[in-house]
Amino acid sequence: MESKTFSPSLPPENAVNQRKRHAVFSALRKDWQLYSLLVIPVIYLLIFKYGPMIGNVIAFRRFVPGGSIFGEKWVGLHYFRMFIEDPTFWRVFSNSLILGGLTLLCTFPVPIIFALLLKRNLSEYDAFINELKGQGLDSYLELTNNTYKKYKEKK
């Protein structure tokens, strides 16, 4: 007697792809209203998020005003090297870091101080001022008081 082994025949790969494609299209047809809600956000994303990235190619090409946005010739990192090797680059770079640091230093404590002020009763205001003076913020208090006085004088 011969023993037969069972070997199921697999559907061709093309048939599997057609079934998947049919499932996707039937889901789109079934819930088309839901998918239509995605059209405007996707268009916004393409125009305002991915669209400007096309212009980044200008940094690597020799750009001629009035010419193509993609420039005339590929120059690679030439303009970056030229910018970094410029004698004023490091001065401009350090000024940017200093201004950023000073902005952070001057604006960071303000919300914290306001939060502490709102947390306390107004009857404890003098104790709060003394606490700030104890932490070495005298100059900040003087600055705020002088600013307030100038504001009142203008009114």
UniProtKB/TrEMBL annotation:
Keywords: Membrane, Transmembrane, Transmembrane helix. The chain crosses the membrane at residues 32-51, 96-118. It comes from Paenibacillus albilobatus. The keyword Iron-sulfur does not apply. SUPFAM superfamilies: MetI-like (SSF161098). It is found in: Membrane. PANTHER family: POLYGALACTURONAN_RHAMNOGALACTURONAN TRANSPORT SYSTEM PERMEASE PROTEIN YTEP, PROTEIN LPLB. Its main location: membrane. It is a multi-pass membrane protein. This is Sugar ABC transporter permease. GO terms for cellular component: membrane. InterPro entries: MetI-like_sf.
